[in-house]
Each structure stands twice: as structure tokens, then as C-alpha cells.
């Protein structure tokens, strides 16, 4: 998967990314305010051999080399009980020598006999006091280390080169640095969460989910408050916004079919996707536009339009194909929503064999002489054989998928099966989307029409 694919996935899950980013970022920034403030102050001491002014240069050089070689030892001396316990006692600190040693940072500038002691404390005054008290204790400690009883007799003199001052600003926490770190960690958490959600939540929800499978997107039908009313409403009874949306989808289907008269088969990846309702309203939109439309109720496995709107089903398409009845004008008497409805009928017949049979082919030719558009409501496609049988005589297919319930793998299985069978996928309609998704031309650039 390339970088562009990851970007599309993140864009698809931007609400997750944004939510996690805000929550994690706020938590990290908030936690920064609970970190105790720390102030740091440094004292600089210089170590030199205790020589008289008449001492020769050679002796001085040897003495300087000795001091330089002892600097690491003097640095270790700072953290001993001999130095730190008097500091604790004199300042009345509520701590121990090991804990106080943890608050110190001791450095020796390269090639020098200088010792920098950096002390940290809750207040600037405490930090400066600790550093300066350490500097006061160091002469005696060094004298003892070198075998002298008092600092004046020590062969090494310790003097303060720069005393510790009270810092004006805290050294930690660094709010600017913490903010940058919090933003970076929150962004990484958001990206990770979005990718995880995208991996596990494979439901089709919007245009992007459809076009990511390289199939045309026709539009999204909003979820209605009253599902029963949506099931029985004719196209002319829909709200103006819904009629406009359905009309655009119907025109896109006619344009993509690119044949006269167009035969269009409606199917879906699973039952209950609203396929029959979408097909019926597309038929109603085309009929209102002045087309002679017939709707064949061929979904013998599930919902049937005729049954929902009260059209008798004693005779229908299964009876015509099985030879029980002959096609005559009486078959076109049942109308609803401005178009002719041919019911499913009462004969038991395999729907795949029916749609792929020669009798059905001849029936399509007869209907072509009477109607401008023929719409066939077929059952959901469950396997490759369904796709090849359903599209044997009708190559133009519209797939209806229910938003937030249909999995991408299900939709991909159907579209692959249809392409393998040689069908032309005019587009996908998403039903029951949470918000209105504008329809798109079926031959939109970047998506094939086959």
C-alpha cells in the first residue's frame, strides 16, 4: 500500500483522527501542569595548587598536572556524606544524601581545573543556597582528602570562580517543549487509531468507500425518519430534495446505460439494502420525465414491489417465463407511481435460470417495443454464478448497498463477480446514508463504466 492509500484512509477516518488527537493532546498538556516546577542554579569552583610565589615553573607544571588528574576525584567528592550532610544540616533540608545527590549535576569543562556544580530545587532560592553551600564545604573536604587538617594547610586551594545566583525562570517543566512533544504524540496516536479503526471497520459509509473500490458512485439516499412511509411513497410524493436527488441518479443511470431502450438490472450484496425501493423510485423519476417505464418484479427470494403496494401477484414474470400464460396487454394493466409493474407471479422457478433463459430474452425484446426503459429488480448476488446468470440477458447493472451495514468486502465481491461475468456496472447507490450525499456522474473520471 502506497503513501497515497494511507492518506485516503486517514482522510476517510478524519473524525477518529481528530477526536484522538484532541483527547490525547489535551491529556498530555494537562498532565504537564501537574509536573512540579524545578529551578536550577550553578556554582563554579576552580582548583589550584597551593604554591608560594617563589615556586619554580617546573614545579608549578607538575602541580597543575596533579590537579588536573585529581579533578574526577574532586567531582566524586561532591556527592559524599562529608560534603552533602553538612549542607542538609545547615539548610534544614528534609532529604537524604542520596536524594540530594540526585538533584546535582557535576561537570568538568574539558582541559580545565574548573568544577561546575548544578543544583536543582523547588525554588530558585533553595537551588542557589544548595549550590553555594556545597562550594563552602568543598575546601575542607578537599583538604581532608589531601591529608591536611584545615583548608589553609591543604596542597590544593578551592575557590569560587562564580557563585550561584537565584534563577528568575524555572528550568523544568519546559512548557514549549512539552507542548511540541504532546502535539507530536497526539498526532501519532490519532493516526494510529484512525488506521486501526479503518482496518477493523470495513463498512461502506460514503462516496469515498465506494470509489476506493474503483466503481462509479451514483448517489446516496438519506435515511428517512419513518421507514414505513419510505417503503410505500411514490416518487411524486417524496420531498422536493429527495425527488431532485432521485432524478439526478435516474438521469445518470440512463446516460451510463447508453443504449435504446435501456435494460437495467438492480441488485445488491445482501438482502434488506433497500434495493427494491431505490429501483422503484428511479422508475418513478424516469416516468415523471416522460419515459414509458416497466418494472419487473424478479426478486423471488425477497421483497417484492407488487406485494408492498397491493398489486395482485396471481400472474407475473415467472408465469410468463414458465409458459403458463402468454404475454398480452392485460399484463400491463398494473401500474403504480406512473410506471407499469409486472409482478413476480405464482410459479416456482429458479430466478437465475429464469433471467438467463432464452424465453426471458425474447420477453425483453417484446418489452422493448412497448417501453422506453425496462427495470428488472433482481435478488441479491451471493456468488459468481448468480452474477453470470442474472446478467446473461441484461448487461447494465446498478448495485444498491446499505450504508454502515454493507462491508467493503461484500461490495467488492459483487462488483468483481459482475465484471467477471462481463456486466457493465453503471454505478453504486448507497441507501440509508446518515446525510445526503450528492449524486455523481456514472462515468466520472477515474472510474470505469464496465
From TrEMBL:
Transmembrane domains' residue ranges: 14-35, 175-197
Name listed for the protein in its UniProt record: AAA+ ATPase domain-containing protein
Organism: Mycolicibacterium rhodesiae (Mycobacterium rhodesiae)
Family: Belongs to the CpsC/CapA family.
Record-level GO cellular component terms: plasma membrane
Origin organism lineage: Bacteria, Bacillati, Actinomycetota, Actinomycetes, Mycobacteriales
Membrane protein topology class: Multi-pass membrane protein
GO MF annotation list: ATP binding; protein tyrosine kinase activity
Keywords assigned by UniProt, alphabetized: ATP-binding, Cell membrane, Membrane, Nucleotide-binding, Transmembrane, Transmembrane helix
Domain named AAA+ ATPase: residues: 260-427
Amino acid at each position: 500500500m502506497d503513501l497515497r492509500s494511507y492518506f485516503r484512509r486517514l482522510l476517510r477516518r478524519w473524525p477518529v483522527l481528530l477526536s484522538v488527537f484532541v483527547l490525547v493532546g489535551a491529556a498530555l498538556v494537562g498532565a504537564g501542569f501537574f509536573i512540579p516546577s524545578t529551578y536550577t542554579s550553578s556554582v563554579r569552583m576552580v582548583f589550584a595548587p597551593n604554591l608560594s610565589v617563589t615556586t619554580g615553573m617546573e614545579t608549578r607544571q607538575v602541580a597543575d598536572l596533579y590537579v588536573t588528574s585529581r579533578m574526577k576525584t574532586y567531582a566524586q567528592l561532591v556527592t559524599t556524606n562529608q560534603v552533602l550532610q553538612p549542607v542538609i544540616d545547615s539548610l534544614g533540608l528534609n532529604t537524604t544524601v542520596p536524594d540530594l545527590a540526585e538533584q546535582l549535576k557535576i561537570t568538568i569543562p574539558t582541559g580545565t581545573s574548573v568544577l561546575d556544580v548544578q543544583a536543582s530545587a523547588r525554588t530558585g532560592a533553595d537551588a542557589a543556597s544548595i549550590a553555594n553551600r556545597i562550594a563552602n564545604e568543598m575546601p575542607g573536604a578537599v583538604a581532608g582528602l589531601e591529608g591536611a587538617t584545615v583548608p589553609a594547610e591543604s596542597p590544593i586551594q578551592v575557590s569560587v570562580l562564580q557563585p550561584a545566583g537565584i534563577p528568575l525562570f524555572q528550568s523544568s517543566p519546559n512548557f514549549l517543549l512539552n507542548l511540541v512533544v504532546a502535539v507530536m504524540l497526539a498526532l501519532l496516536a490519532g493516526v494510529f487509531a484512525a488506521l486501526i479503526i479503518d482496518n477493523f471497520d470495513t463498512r461502506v459509509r460514503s462516496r469515498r468507500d465506494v470509489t476506493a473500490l474503483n466503481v462509479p458512485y451514483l448517489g446516496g439516499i438519506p435515511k428517512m425518519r419513518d421507514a414505513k412511509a419510505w417503503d410505500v411513497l411514490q416518487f411524486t410524493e417524496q420531498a422536493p430534495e429527495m425527488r431532485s436527488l432521485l432524478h439526478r441518479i435516474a438521469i445518470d443511470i440512463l446516460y451510463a446505460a447508453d443504449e435504446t431502450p435501456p435494460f437495467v438490472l438492480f441488485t445488491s450484496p445482501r438482502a434488506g439494502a433497500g434495493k427494491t425501493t431505490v429501483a422503484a423510485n428511479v422508475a418513478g423519476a424516469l416516468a415523471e420525465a416522460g419515459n414509458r417505464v416497466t418494472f419487473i418484479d424478479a426478486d423471488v427470494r425477497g421483497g417484492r414491489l407488487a406485494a408492498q403496494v397491493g398489486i395482485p401477484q396471481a400472474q407475473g414474470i415467472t408465469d410468463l417465463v414458465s409458459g403458463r400464460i402468454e404475454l398480452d396487454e392485460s399484463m400491463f394493466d398494473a401500474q403504480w407511481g406512473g410506471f407499469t409493474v409486472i409482478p413476480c407471479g405464482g410459479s416456482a422457478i429458479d430466478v437465475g435460470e429464469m433471467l438467463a433463459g432464452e424465453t426471458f430474452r425474447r420477453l425483453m425484446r417484446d418489452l422493448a417495443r412497448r417501453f422506453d426503459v425496462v427495470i428488472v429488480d433482481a435478488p441479491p448476488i451471493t456468488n459468481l454464478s448468480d452474477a453470470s446468470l442474472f446478467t446473461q440477458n441484461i448487461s447494465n447493472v446498478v448495485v444498491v448497498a446499505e450504508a454502515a451495514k454493507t462491508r467493503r468486502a461484500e461490495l467488492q465481491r459483487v462488483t468483481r463477480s459482475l465484471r467477471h461475468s462481463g456486466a457493465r456496472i453503471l454505478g453504486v447507490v448507497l441507501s440509508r446514508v446518515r446525510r445526503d450525499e450528492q449524486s455523481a456522474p456514472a462515468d466520472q473520471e477515474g472510474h470505469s463504466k464496465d
